[in-house]
Amino acid sequence: MVYAASSSESSGIESMKDSVLPKLDSVNRKVDDMRSSVESDPENITDIIIKMAVPALAGMVLSKVLEIAWKKTTKDDTVPSGTNTSSSLLNAMAFASISGALAALISRLSTKGSKALVNHRQAKRLAKAK
Predict the structure, then answer these.
(1) Does one domain contain both 104 and 63?
(2) Using CA atoms, how far apart are residues 77 and 15, in angstroms rounded to an integer?
């Protein structure tokens, strides 16, 4: 048995095709644009790790240095914290303000430094590729 499409069915398919194809072309262009932007991005996984690890390590080092400096200057073996009730409120506020200010400074500097390092690495890679 052969099935023949009527003219009304074929015109319905034609009109659907005419409305769907431009939408698919639009999606295809967007995917191509996204692919080209990803391929043109010089950042690789090592660069991403550097930009995350450098500020994190700088924060950890600052924390330890600040803890050691606090213990040496106050001659107290404990660092003020929210759970430590033996330290005075003034000591806790002083430690919090000093550590907050230094953490903000180190975070800002290490983030700028890691971005500069990544930019330098990318420039070297691009120069090698040419």
Answers:
(1) yes
(2) 81
